[in-house]
Amino acid sequence: MSVIAMGQLAVKRQGLAAPGAAPTAGSAQDISDTAGKIVAFIPADVVSVYVAGLGIFQPQSQLSRWLVFFVCLALVPFFALLGGSNPPGPAGPVTAKARAFVTLAGAVAFVAWCAALPESPFLAVLPEANRIGAFAAVVLTGVLPVIGARLGVT
């Protein structure tokens, strides 16, 4: 089950969206769409390693949460440049700008996504990290596709 599907299930179970209701602002469908758009810029392999790392280590200390985060952040350029499961790719010839964008966008999106998660390591630094991360993810959802389109990255 994907992270997005689990999030949708959690929202449904908490009664935040009526079953079969049309999506409204802030509904489970809206949340899922935003999460899906931001995660599209993060190589799927990095998301998988992050979720698996948290599941395997079940980090109780901030140090272990930060270690899992930084290991996965270091993997973003590896998978973005060498091709992982889903990195956005250039529509035409691969340019240096397109490679740089895919790498930078993946790293920034990963940081925003991690900050928005409930057990984020960023909570040790800033108690409002979840809200800031969620807002950053929403902003990036609108900005990254536009920049990518200008650079020919789909």
Polypeptide structure, described:
- The chain is mainly α and 154 residues long.
- The chain has one domain (39-151).
- It contains 6 helices and no strands.
- The longest helix has 23 residues, at 129-151.
- It is globular, with a radius of gyration of 16 Å.
- The relative contact order is 0.13.
Pick out its properties.
154 residues, mainly alpha, 66% helix, globular, disordered N terminus
Sheet having the most strands: none
Share of helix among residues?
Answer: 55-70%
Percentage of β-strand residues: under 5%
Outline the low-pLDDT stretches: 1-28
Distance between the termini: 25 Å
Rg (CA only): 16 Å
Mean pLDDT across the residues is: 76
Q: Give the structural class.
A: mainly alpha
* Tally of DSSP helical segments: 6
The secondary-structure element order is HHHHHH
- Globally, the shape reads globular
Structural domains: how many: 1
| DSSP strand count | 0
What's the helix and strand layout?
Elements: H1 3-13, H2 28-39, H3 44-57, H4 62-82, H5 96-116, H6 129-151
Helix pairs in contact: 1-2, 2-6, 3-4, 4-5, 5-6
Outline:
This protein is an all-alpha fold and 154 residues long. It contains 6 helices and no strands. Helix 3 runs antiparallel to helix 4 and helix 4 (62-82) runs antiparallel to helix 5 (96-116).
